[in-house]
Design brief:
The complex is a heterodimer of chains A (108) and B (491).
Chain A: E1 3-6, E2 9-12, E3 18-23, E4 29-32, E5 35-37, E6 45-47, E7 58-66, E8 72-80, E9 83-92, E10 98-107
Parallel strand pairs in A: 2-10
Antiparallel strand pairs in A: 1-2, 3-6, 3-8, 4-5, 4-7, 7-10, 8-9
Chain B: H1 6-22, H2 44-53, H3 61-70, E1 116-122, E2 132-138, H4 140-144, H5 153-158, H6 160-163, E3 165-172, E4 185-194, H7 202-233, H8 236-259, H9 271-297, H10 301-337, E5 340-350, E6 358-368, E7 373-384, E8 398-412, E9 417-428, E10 435-445, E11 450-459, E12 470-479
Antiparallel strand pairs in B: 1-2, 1-12, 2-3, 3-4, 4-5, 5-6, 6-7, 7-8, 8-9, 9-10, 10-11, 11-12
Helix pairs in contact in B: 1-10, 2-3, 3-10, 7-10, 8-9
The chains are: A mainly beta (108), B alpha+beta (491).
């Protein structure tokens, strides 16, 4: 079952899917390692076992959040097979017109 | 400290050229350097990440760890403030209109503040006797956004209708009303606007996302790729140590923030805030040293090579953020200043104890030419609310017609001024002769949200004296949109 190790760091079993939902003023730009994911604000997206490597591998979900309309916030929800394992809010912008969130996903 | 190997130098140079070739041609890039990172040097991206880590929320531990470990000293991060605050602009009506006891406006503008505007003005233009007036203007969006506390891009889109309705009230505080039994309410107006533009519009944001991937995608992918290569290339013990370091640092940050709360009345510019930030930063650097130095000592040559690649990629990505932020600011300016038309319709109720209270219907049209110049043309009809005046004399329903227009140039001189040349012609009914006015008005934008309007108005209608044909009017206006809601500073 997916567990939260600490903020922005989660462990999943090799057969488990972890689901993210990012809601905010714009669609986020999301990258898993060297792949671009198609993500819409408010719509859940899955990170499946097929997208991850074997036990011990650490993957990086890098989310770029745009604040073109001024300061605001994005909310994140992280769900595993057992339900919600984390929720947090990211205010911004913190880097010009953007904020960046880097999430570790470790297969354990 | 070990000298860089030849293969390391070649790899870093090739990596940097490859990433650079993927960027749009005008993106600023940090040049690739081949020196072995020194533990005593601090890179710009590392300093930026440390500053970010001293805020209430921080979400980029892997990059913070990588840049600390690399401790590179190169590159410049441009902190372009592209936060698009809604500062007062020349197309907004600030203060009351020409019919009140205190005003600086001959020709009314189409736009208005989306949250709140307060104005104090002295000197009449159309009215016979000068006074001072206070004008409060707001929109229903102020309430739906919970007085700006819930002013986000989502509520901006959701409650668009409420942002387009202006409600204002003017109160006479001067010598215009001498009757002790009456209150000082003078004028109320409701106005609706079509065609107003804001950098917060969804269509503009969608347009941005057509352009931004070209600036951001490749540097971000490269950063993630090199991060994965570095992290997963480490032996399991070091990966475990990095995981523990992140957990410990997250917990430490929470404890530090809990033990060092920010007083509610403290501003970011207060010395106490600056001191607190400095203490947080220093303590954070000590924590990084405590938790990561032992990891750094165990990195082999291959680890350090991958680490240098990662640090270079992070620097390049920081440059891409700066370039993308510049793009956002440039596109916003182009969108707002592009030629476009705005139209407003206003209904006002005006107190007039001498003749009759009247209703004022106004159609206001503005065209922004895109050359820092906009033109206004307004048509107005005023209807008496009473059939007779206080003496019993019968009044016509139609009180007067009016036509007004202006040209506004601005802002100029580093956005400190705008200038308006205006004219108004009024045809009163009941046998009175036409009234004509001309005005030169200068708005001074001295500090954020505050405007000082100054105007000189010529009238061919004698007031108290046939010699009093020129009036000087001055006021002070505060546009709270630049201080409330989404525009408030979140750093």
């Amino acid at each position: 079952m997916a567990t939260k190790v600490t903020d922005f760091y989660y462990q999943v079993s090799p057969t488990e899917t972890i689901t993210f939902t990012i809601s905010g003023p714009d669609d986020p730009r999301v990258f898993l390692d060297n792949t671009t994911l198609s993500v819409v604000s408010g719509t859940s997206f899955d990170v499946t076992p097929q997208m991850l490597n074997g036990i011990g591998a650490v993957h990086f979900l890098r989310c770029i959040l745009l604040f073109a309309a001024g300061p605001g916030s994005y909310s994140f929800s992280v769900d595993g097979s057992g339900g919600n394992i984390d929720s947090f809010t990211i205010p911004g912008p913190s880097n010009g017109s953007f904020s960046q969130v880097v999430i570790n996903i470790e297969v354990a | 400290m070990k000298p860089p190997t030849t293969s390391y130098l070649i790899r870093t140079a090739v990596l940097s050229v490859l990433v650079a070739s993927m960027l749009v041609a005008d993106s600023p890039r940090a040049s690739a350097q081949a020196n072995e990172p020194s533990a005593s040097e601090s890179s710009t991206s590392f300093n930026k990440l440390v500053d970010d880590a001293t805020k209430e929320v921080f979400a980029d531990y892997p990059d913070l760890f990588a840049t600390y470990l690399a401790s590179r000293a190169r590159g410049v991060v441009s902190q372009v403030g592209a936060t698009l605050r809604q500062n007062p602009n020349p197309d907004r009506q600030t203060g009351s209109t020409a019919e009140t006891a205190g005003t600086t406006t001959l020709t009314e503008k189409t736009g208005f503040s989306e949250l709140l505007n307060l104005a104090i003005e002295t000197g009449a233009i159309v009215k016979k006797t000068s006074g001072s007036s206070y004008t409060l203007q707001t929109t229903p969006y102020l309430l739906y956004s919970k007085f700006g506390t819930n002013d986000t891009a989502a509520t901006w889109d959701q409650y668009a209708l409420f942002r387009k309705i202006s409600l204002s009230a003017t109160f006479d505080q001067g010598t215009g009303n001498q009757q002790p039994s009456s209150n000082n309410f003078e004028r109320a107006e409701v106005k609706y606007i079509w065609g107003g533009r804001s950098a917060r519009d969804k269509g503009f944001r969608d347009h941005l996302w057509q352009l931004l991937p070209a600036k951001l995608d490749q540097p971000t992918l490269m950063t993630n790729k090199t991060l994965s290569l570095f992290w997963n290339g480490l032996p399991p013990l070091l990966r475990d140590a990095l995981r523990k370091a992140q957990k410990d640092l997250v917990d430490w940050r929470k404890d530090w923030l809990k033990d060092n709360p920010v007083p509610t009345d403290q501003k970011p510019t207060d010395q106490a805030s600056i001191d607190r930030q400095a203490r947080f930063r220093q303590a954070l650097l000590q924590q990084l040293q405590t938790r990561l130095d032992s990891i750094f000592e165990q990195l082999n040559d291959q680890d350090r090579t991958r680490l240098a690649d990662l640090a270079a990629a992070i620097e390049i990505q920081q440059g891409a953020f700066a370039a993308a932020s510049d793009l956002v600011a440039a596109e916003a300016k182009q969108y707002l200043e592009a030629p476009h038309t705005e139209v407003s319709f206003a209904y006002s109720f005006q107190r007039d104890a001498t003749i009759s209270d009247f209703s004022d219907f106004k159609l206001i049209a503005a065209y922004k030419t895109g050359l820092n110049l906009s033109a206004n043309l307004n048509g107005e009809i005023m209807l008496n609310n009473n059939r007779t005046d206080p003496s019993g004399k019968r009044l016509d329903t139609i009180r007067a017609y009016s036509l007004e227009g202006d040209l506004t140039f601005g802002k100029f001189a580093n956005d400190m001024f705008d200038f308006t040349a205006a004219a108004k012609w009024t045809r009163p009914q009941g046998g009175a002769r036409d009234e004509r006015f001309a005005q030169a008005k200068l708005n001074l934008y001295l500090i954020r949200s505050m405007t000082i309007p100054i105007s000189l108005t010529y009238s061919d209608k004698p007031e108290d004296s046939t010699r009093s044909r020129v009036r000087f009017n001055v006021g002070l206006s505060m546009d709270a949109d630049a201080l409330m809601g989404a525009a408030r500073n979140q750093s």
